[in-house]
Amino acid sequence: APPAERIPVAFVFWSTPDHAGAAPYWHDPGFRGAMDLLVSEHRMDVVWYNVADEGAEGRLKAAASAGHYAFIFAKGCWHTPADKTMRGGVIPSLPPGVRTGLFPACSSAPPPDEVTGTPIDRAYDVIFYDKLWLKGLFEGHKSVVHAFGVDSPRTFNDSGSVPWAEHAKLFDWVSVGMFAPWKRHETILDKPGNKLVVGYGWRSSESSSVVSV
């Protein structure tokens, strides 16, 4: 059951618009949907801090050190601005009892901390991961939580008479996400059967030519 009182939470990230006039945050409806659930169903009041914005890092540090939040978590890979902000200025200044977490938006193992030499993930009270195969990267961490993945009941329409898993398969291979070169969309061309790529354009100079033409 959700707590009786609302929980003050800070969310730390780094994002810049791809072009003038673009939305300041990434196009990630799945993650945004999960964040909305924290507010609507888990009674969390989440304040977003984009440390790419002028003055955001200072405001975050001031509020965090004053104990305004019960939990502070960040999204970003190791050594990204969000992670560096957390480890460099936020975590050392927190009052007792404030917990921290990181959702490392990458698939690499945590490297050593620049100062302590211990894996970076140990600086956080909890590590969130979205893909099941990533769990093994954090075997030494005391608190690892599978979160921010696909919420199947909300994603698949199961209100009809036929379960979604029994419907006819339209595509044999599906790729979902940005049309970026590191997604290696060219490999899907060699796969047999029907193929579908769903996503959005990355920076024009870096988009995968296989799906952007």
Keywords summarizing the entry:
213 residues; alpha/beta; 6-stranded parallel sheet; 5 helices; 18% strand
Q: Could you walk me through the main structural features you see in this protein, from its secondary elements to its overall organization?
A:
The structure is a single chain. With 213 residues, the chain is α/β, with parallel strands linked by helices. 19% of the residues lie in helices and 18% in strands. The chain contains five helices and eight strands; from the N terminus they run βαβαβαβββαββα. The chain has helices at 29-40, 56-65, 81-90, 152-155, 209-212; strands at 7-13, 44-50, 71-75, 99-103, 126-129, 144-146, 173-176, 195-198. The protein has a six-stranded parallel beta sheet with strand order 2-1-3-4-5-6, sandwiched between helices. A two-stranded parallel ribbon has the order 7-8. The mean pLDDT is 83.
First-to-last CA distance: 49 Å
Count of discrete alpha- or pi-helical segments spanning 4 or more residues: 5
In percent, how much strand structure appears in the residues? 15-25%
Structural class: alpha/beta
Query: What is the overall shape?
Result: globular
Strands side by side in the biggest sheet: 2-1-3-4-5-6
Overall helicity: 10-25%
State the major sheet: 6 strands, parallel
Low-pLDDT sequence parts: none
C-alpha Rg (nearest Å): 20 Å
Instruction: Count every beta strand, where a strand is a DSSP E run of 2 or more residues.
Output: 8
Q: Overall pLDDT, averaged?
A: 83
**Topology as H/E string?**
EHEHEHEEEHEEH
Oligomer: single chain
